Amino acid sequence: MKKIGYGIGAFFAAILLIVIIALVFAGSFITPSFLVKQIESAINVRAHVESVNISLFNVLSGIEIEGIILAPRDEVANKGIPLDQRKSKPKGLIQLGKAEVKISFLALLTKTLKVNKIVLKKPEISLTMNEDGGNNLTSLFKTPKIVDGEKNPALSQEALAEKKAAEEEEAKEKASAPPSGPFSIKDIPIAIKMGLVGIQEGTIQVFMRKTGQQIQIQKLDLELKDIDIDGSDLNSHNNVNVNFDADVTIIGRNKKEAAKFILETEGKVTPFVVKTGLVNPKVIYEVTMKEDSFVSGFAAFDAIAGELPALNQAGLKLDKLKEKAELKKDVSFQVEYSNGKVTFLDEPTFPTKNYDLQITKGSYIITTTNYHEMKMGMLYDEDESKKSLASVDEKIKQATKGQGDPKALRNKIVGNLVKDERLFIPFRTYGDIRNPSVELGVGLGTLTDLIGGAVKEVIKGKAGDALKKIPGAGDALKGLGF
Questions:
Q1: Could you give the residue ranges of the DSSP H alpha helices within 406-446?
Q2: φ/ψ bin of 360: left (φ > 0), alpha (ψ from -120 to 50), beta (otherwise)
Q3: Rounded to an integer, what is the distance from CA 394 to the centroid of its chain?
Q4: Positions of the region Disordered (predicted)?
Q5: pLDDT of residue 82
Q6: Closest CA to 436 of 362, 364, 366, 372
Q7: Residue-by-residue DSSP string for 243-306
């Protein structure tokens, strides 16, 4: 028995010795120059790496790479000039302050892939979205045509023919093999445990050529924590904690800030369906929109403020909707994400100085296409509501030539637009969120039709009693042809 124990001990000692020797050897050739050469041989970029740290005492846990830059390919990369002979750093479209990877190699012996940390620190990405849907980063990840000053051997006729033959052979094997179902985590023979995978202090600049808009994502922290997945026991091991924090600023074609959203998001995600092991199509997040987030010049609000004829005809003045509206306090709400679609699971209210905005449960945005359909309610500022309703009263006075009680008639006309002494406007916005279609949630006709319809409703009820409560209403009716 002791011999067996000694044998097992010797086996583990040998494995450990091999790992240490391998990593010590790796430290001698995994240098910035080595990594730059490998990157530039594989993809169509000019690369830069500042330093690589493989410590013997860290060796069983990982590696650190600092100062990674990926820039458009140039002659320096084409010629394969050694890193230490290059005169300057390139200006990169993708820059990483530091990449940390820490893996437990010993855990592999127990059929567990244990990653203690994979973190990209201070990444900076400059992305341009073209009108055809393409972007400026796509070309970076193509196979380079020239490597070390010569045509890339991977693109030679022989290499391409060999690659095509291998792909055809693989296709034949797949065709002859029994049909396979979708990916299931139950087919993976090892458990997966990860401490932290994510991005810290990231910055992403996105320029939209079609609209001229810029989207700036700053202070980006994306963390996947406490990842615990075991396909053989999904009831107990099927968890990922997600945190997403960012400041998202939208800058319009006029170079002015149109909106800023300060977001804190967290969720406990069940990544796989327990019964089948298939990827869970739905994820629920708890989102907090932080105080000082704001919207200015939102197209749907502009339409409500002055471009909907019905509101103008009724005399409603809603100019405050065009002004910058800052969130007065933090607002938390739940959303569901599924295949690019974000759906509101409750009805949050966002209080601002000029109005309170309520979003109806079930409203959604499809992030991949910008299509949206949202039902909302706008509760206008109290003082501004009074001014707007006074404008309606003035319209009624003009139409009735001063006869009757304008407030009483106004309540019959636009009473369903008043809530808690404030103007309340339900509306629906849909289509492309950058140029939405907007519909009021209540029907409004011309002012004369409104007054006539309101009085007709009064007559259909208790005409005598109702009209007595509205001084001068009888004379007003005569003036309107009743």
A1: 406-414
A2: beta
A3: 46
A4: 162-181
A5: 93
A6: 372
A7: EEEEEEEEE-TTSSEEEEEEEEEEEEE--B-TTT-PBPS-EEEEEEEPTT-EE-S-HHHHIIII
- Predicted pLDDT at 305: 64
> Would you give the DSSP letter of residue 156?
S
- Taking the C-alpha atoms of residue 73 and residue 43, their distance in angstroms, rounded to an integer, is 9
Residues 180-193 as b or e (16 or more Cβ within 10 Å = b)? eeeeebeeeebbbb
Q: What is the pLDDT of residue 94?
A: 93
Q: Which residue type does 303 have?
A: A
Query: Residue 54 and residue 480: Cα distance in Å, rounded?
Result: 89
Phi, psi of 93, deg, nearest 5 = -80, -25
Q: Which residue's entry shows tokens 């289509």?
A: 431
Residue 61 pLDDT: 56
In angstroms, the CA 185 to CA 327 distance is 43
**Cα distance between residue 54 and residue 36, in whole Å:** 17
In the chain, count H helices and then E strands. 11, 24
Q: How far apart are CA 91 and CA 112, in angstroms?
A: 40
263/138 Cα distance (integer angstroms): 29
Residues of the chain with pLDDT under 70: 1-29, 55-61, 104-113, 179-181, 297-299, 305-316, 401-404, 412-413, 415, 442-482
SS3 of 422, please? strand
Pairing of strands 191-208, 112-121: parallel
In this structure, what token pair is assigned to residue 314?
Answer: 């009724």
Closest CA to 244 of 264, 230, 262, 218: 264
CA–CA distance, 389 with 476 (Å, rounded to integer) = 20
Cα(380)–Cα(353) distance, integer angstroms: 9
- Please tell me the distance from the alpha carbon of residue 32 to that of residue 68, in angstroms, as a whole number: 9
Whole-model pTM: value is 0.73
- DSSP-derived 3-state class of residue 38: helix
- List, in order, residues 6 or more apart from 368 with CB less than 8 Å away: 340
For residue 372, the one-letter residue type is H
- Going by C-alpha positions, the residue among 420, 429, 296, 299 that lies closest to residue 354 is 296
DSSP H or E segment with residue 140 = none
Euclidean distance between CA atoms 482 and 463, whole angstroms: 13
| pLDDT reported for residue 412 | 67
Looking at residue 178, the DSSP 8-state letter turns out to be P
Three-state DSSP class for residue 368: coil
Structure tokens, 366: 């499809």
